[in-house]
């Protein structure tokens, strides 16, 4: 049984505004997405800003209500749980955010902030035990355990992200959803945080859904990658399958924007803006920007189909005519 299995998940938001009698419109943020994360696996979810990847992550942890579909964690459908049941289940999954400062209470010491999580999920520990454990967790993420009484503003951006990771680890979850955890950090600090997440996976067997817009970052840490465009997964496979042999024109464009990866290949610059998710294009959603689009692409959405091994893609160029 997979640790996390997302089945046909959709998240539509009603659009505010319009007249009383106009037809209600919806943003198709996530549109019939299926995805799995196995125990101890790191899956990268990549796509441009607004493609729905963060909404998908927020739906998994219950911050956004799905419109339809299932989110099975250890076989239990999170979408069918009551608020109380979901709170209890949160021990098994935690989230790391792009801006750790936003999720840390500036008036609380980092020790209290970590112990707050421990008091929810480690009922076996008394206050002294929680403090010892909080110091251990600080050391685990590369911070001094002697800084428990410091406040968030006394730490750098990278250190605050480490504190965010410490809070996530305090629940000892099997799965962490990391939503753009390094995109606000300097490149050198990014590498340190990525190495830290890899170390946590190696030592504790924690699985990650690593959400990012930068394919270079995702490739570095992920076992598998799913590429998302306008609410749909358009390509998925092992990190090597997707990055060494990208098949979807959108993945090729993302890769060609990474100078270190495909140096000798000509850069594919996407024309046009991302279309409105309120009225997604007919057929293949990528067709208004795709250099290979033909008439049939405007009429029919290609299904995700196997391109060999564990490599799946939704494009007419690879078999689904
Ligand atoms: Fe381009 Fe057509 Fe493939 Fe869509 S189906 S990515 S428009 S070639």
Question: What does this entry show, briefly?
Answer:
This protein has 321 residues and is α/β, with parallel strands linked by helices. The chain has 11 helices and 12 strands.
Could you characterize what this model shows?
The chain is α/β, with parallel strands linked by helices. The protein is built from eleven helices and twelve strands. It has helices at about 55-60, 85-90, 100-105, 110-120, 125-140, 155-170, 185-205, 215-220, 240-245, 250-255, 295-300; strands spanning about 5-15, 25-35, 40-45, 70-75, 75, 95, 175-180, 205-210, 225-230, 230-240, 305, 310-315. Strands 6-7-8-3-9-10-12-11 form an eight-stranded mixed sheet, with helices on both faces. The protein has a four-stranded antiparallel sheet with strand order 2-1-4-5, covered by helices on one side. Helix 4 (about 110-120) crosses helix 5, helix 4 (about 110-120) runs parallel beside helix 6 and helix 5 packs across helix 6. The relative contact order is 0.14. The model has no long low-confidence stretch (mean pLDDT about 90). The chain binds iron/sulfur cluster. Iron/sulfur cluster binds near residues 292 and 317.
